[in-house]
Design brief:
single chain, Nucleotidyltransferase, domain 5, seven-stranded mixed sheet, globular
Length: about 260
């Protein structure tokens, strides 16, 4: 090109990924969530340009693909378990996570001594999220849960929301009643000891599930939508493995036996 003086020519848009390449791209995005690998590193490992991977992730997030997958998997799992597709009660709670200075927002949680962001969840009795929002860690639970209630009401949920004593207050109760959701706070422990009560402990298990995904322990995302997308990817992964074990009994884990 330098010899004849011609400039670079555009060959047109790249062909979309299909088949094995598309599966590799999806697994690469999952590895970013589970192992917290850098986009450039996972691009080298799967032999796909990291720009292509990040563009796919951003585009699918913008189109709401992850949320739509969850909206298909959660009712299907509830029906497999012999339950109705829509729950009559949800459990709400939050988790504070450390975040990098480049994160979309940071705050200091004085109770847990964490500088970062806070994840707010509303899950059903099986532990799968029906609504997810994020906020700076210095936002109180009674304020941070309001967008979650709006998401639940937008999806047609009418019922009870169970939570700890952080969700008590007349203002939050009135906000829930306006949306058709009754807030029922209750004590979850005594003297610093956690005491399971009813089904309210299930949200603690859900928060423990996402703590296994390293991308969700220290937050580096620059936008709230990308962080919510990684949380949804984590739960999609959990539900997918459950369906695989259900369809292939040979892949089920053996139950531990008590040895005397």
């Amino acid at each position: 090109m330098a010899a004849d003086g011609s400039g670079p020519t555009r060959t047109g848009p790249k062909s979309p990924l299909t088949g094995a390449a598309l599966r590799r791209a999806i697994m690469a995005i999952w590895c970013v969530c589970f192992c917290s690998l850098q986009w450039r590193a996972i691009g080298l490992l799967c032999d796909i340009p990291f720009g292509t991977l990040y563009t796919l992730f951003a585009r699918w997030t913008r189109l709401g693909l992850w949320r739509r997958l969850l909206d298909c998997l959660i009712p299907a799992w509830r029906q497999v378990c012999g339950d109705k597709p829509r729950p009559s009660a949800v459990i709400v709670d939050s988790r504070s996570c450390h975040s990098a200075p480049t994160c979309f927002g940071r705050g200091f949680d004085g109770g847990k001594k964490i500088k970062g962001i806070k994840i707010h969840l509303a899950v059903d009795k099986y532990g799968f999220p029906l609504a997810i929002t994020v906020s700076p860690a210095n936002r109180h639970d009674s304020r941070g849960i309001v967008p979650v209630l709006h998401q639940l009401a937008g999806r047609g949920f009418k019922g009870t929301a169970l939570g700890d004593l952080s969700y008590r207050g007349q203002r939050l109760s009135k906000a829930g009643e306006a949306l058709g959701i009754a807030i029922q706070p209750s004590a979850g422990g005594h003297g610093g000891t956690f005491i399971p009560e009813g089904i309210r402990w299930i949200v603690e298990r859900s928060l423990g599930w996402i703590s296994r995904y390293l991308r969700l322990n220290t937050i580096f995302e620059r936008t709230e939508a990308h962080l919510v997308a990684f949380i949804e990817i984590a739960f999609i992964s959990i539900l997918s493995r459950r369906f695989v074990r259900l369809l292939n009994p040979a892949n089920q884990r053996p139950r531990p036996t008590n040895r005397l």
